Amino acid sequence: MTKHLSAQNPWPRLRVDDWTETRDTVHMWTQIVGKIRLSQAPLLNHWWQVTLYVGPRGLTTGAVPHRGGLFDLELDFVEHRLRVRSSDGGERLVPLSSRPVADFYGETMRALQELGIEVTIDPRPNEVEPAIPFAEDHQHGSYDSEAAQLFWRQLVQAERVMGEFRSHFVGKVSPVHFFWGAMDLACTRFSGRAAPAHPGGAPNCGDWVMVEGYSRELSSAGFWPGGGEEGAFYAYAYPEPPSFAEYPIGPDAAYYSVENGQFLLPYEAVAEAENPDQDLAAFLHSTYRAAADLGGWDRHSLEDDPHRWPQHRVGSR
């Protein structure tokens, strides 16, 4: 079994097969929390208002507007509880433990009601099959707290390197954020041009959702707990330009998956590398170049050196 965090290597090791049941339960929790944010936040392009963010203790919604105030929800994988807070000072805690999703859903909605936060959400998960309504889901109920924390720590490492990658782009670029539909951490760059309407096809998800998500030409990269023994980093372009799959990318462990229609880099290859940050950065930058060069992006206008103002860093004058 591969499930550990080494003091020498901060990139946690977690075999997907060792935590599949917990992963699927946590996936449903993130869908519930994400849908609560979705129910209150105004639309942002490509559904950026629905995502979660990697925080120093887990996954958080960030501030969510509600009437004249704000609230947030945080899946805390350090103390293993969902924390619900409102800007009027109220707080409720929901334990993260092995129990049916239906129980977690009911307790979370009650916590919101007790804080005076009125929320109605679509009660079915998206992008999964079958889509069991949360209130009826007694199938998913496993929670290995160690595995969940290791997954969050994987996201911490991915977010850190992807955040540095993001800083090289001055065009339209998404935050590094967690999409609860497919359970992946992503960062997406845009050329500035419109894209053909996406055909849709995701399970239990309206095609119009994908049309909005892919309404502009893009290059996207991220991490999800699938695609490899310990998860995988991915990168794709929409629309995919000709010869995209043949473009030379790095590092050596990366490859184009015809089945998935994207480049993949197994997580374990990064974790075992002499310099994991460097290998992941090589993957992110080279797969972006594949999209931008073959797609004819105006790279001169869209990119810049993130260290272009070294004399004005914090603490200097």
Percent helix, as a range, is: 25-40%
Point out poorly predicted stretches. Answer: none
Q: Report strand %.
A: 15-25%
Helices and strands, in order, run as EEHEEEEEEHHEEHEEEEHHH
Described by the principal axes of the CA atoms, the overall outline is: globular
**What oligomeric state do the depicted chains represent?**
single chain
Q: What is the arithmetic mean of pLDDT? A: 96
Radius of gyration, CA atoms, in whole angstroms: 20 Å
* Biggest beta-sheet profile: 6 strands, antiparallel
Instruction: Count helical runs.
Output: 7
| Separation of the first and last Cα atoms | 52 Å
Topology of helices and strands:
Layout (H helix, E strand, L loop, with lengths): L2 E2 L8 E2 L5 H21 L12 E2 L3 E3 L3 E3 L2 E8 L4 E6 L4 E5 L5 H14 L30 H22 L10 E3 L4 E11 L12 H7 L2 E9 L7 E7 L16 E3 L4 E5 H5 L4 H20 L3 H4 L15
Antiparallel strand pairs: 1-2, 3-4, 4-6, 5-6, 6-7, 7-8, 9-10, 10-11, 11-12, 12-14, 13-14
Question: Could you walk me through the main structural features you see in this protein, from its secondary elements to its overall organization?
Answer:
- This protein has 317 residues and is α+β, with helices and mostly antiparallel strands.
- Helix content is 29%, strand content 22%.
- The protein is built from seven helices and 14 strands.
- The chain has helices at 20-40, 101-114, 145-166, 207-213, 267-271, 276-295, 299-302; strands at residues 3-4, 13-14, 53-54, 58-60, 64-66, 69-76, 81-86, 91-95, 177-179, 184-194, 216-224, 232-238, 255-257, 262-266.
- The strands form three sheets. Strands 3, 4, 5, 6, 7 and 8 form a six-stranded antiparallel β-sheet that branches. Strands 9-10-11-12-14-13 form a six-stranded antiparallel β-sheet.
- Strand 9 and strand 10 (184-194) form a beta hairpin.
- The longest helix is centred in the middle third of the chain and has 22 residues, at 145-166.
- It is globular.
- The termini are far apart.
- The model has no long low-confidence stretch (mean pLDDT 96).
